Amino acid sequence: MTAAPDTRAFWDARYADDVYRFGEAPNAFLARQAERLQPGLKALSVADGEGRNGVWLAQQGLDVLTFDISPRAVEKAQALAARRGVALDAQIGGLDDWIWPEGTMDVVVGVFIQFVGPAARDRMFARMKTALKPGGLLLLEGYRPEQLAYGTGGPGMEENLYAEALLREAFADLEIERIDAYDAELDEGPGHSGVSALIDLIARKPL
User: Fold this and answer.
1) Looking at residue 1, what is its pLDDT?
2) Which has the least CB within 10 A, 26, 29, 76, 130?
C-alpha cells in the first residue's frame, strides 16, 4: 500500500516552516529511558517527524534509523542532526510503503504515532515487533482517550488513542515490563503543550 500523495502533502505543509512543531528536545518519556540505552545499539524511531527523538538517540551513541512520510520533515531531521554533530539515517517513507527491517533492532521507539486508525495501527505494531531482535526493547508513548477533553495535542479521534487493555492485547507476545497511565504537563513545541493524558509502554521481545 503506497502512501497517498495528499497525505504526504498534508505533513509537508505541517512541517513547512523553520519552527520545529514538536520542539528540538527529545520526548520526556524517551529521555527518562536513557539508562536503558547503551552506545552501539541499533535503534529505529518510527514516524520520527522532524527528528527530535532520533537525533537524541544518536547523541546517546546509538546507531539510529528513522523514517517519516514527509520529505520536509526528513530534511529538518537531517539538519538537526548536522547541528548536533551526529549521524542519522533518516529516510522518507510511509508506514505501509517503507521497507521495515526485520529482526535487526535493539530498540524500537514510537512516540505519539497516533495519526493511524485501528487497522493501520495493527499493521504498524506488528512491524515494530518484527523489527526487534530477540531481547530487543520497545518504547512506546501515546495519548489516552482522556486527552480529548484536554485538547493539548494528538488526534481528535478516540479510536486512535491508547488504553492499557489495548496495549496489553496488542503486545501480549512481548514481555511487558511496565505500562504507566498518568497526566503530565508537556512542553514539546507548539504541537504538544499543556496538561496531557499519557500512557507509556516498556516491553521486550522474548529471547
Assistant:
1) 35
2) 130
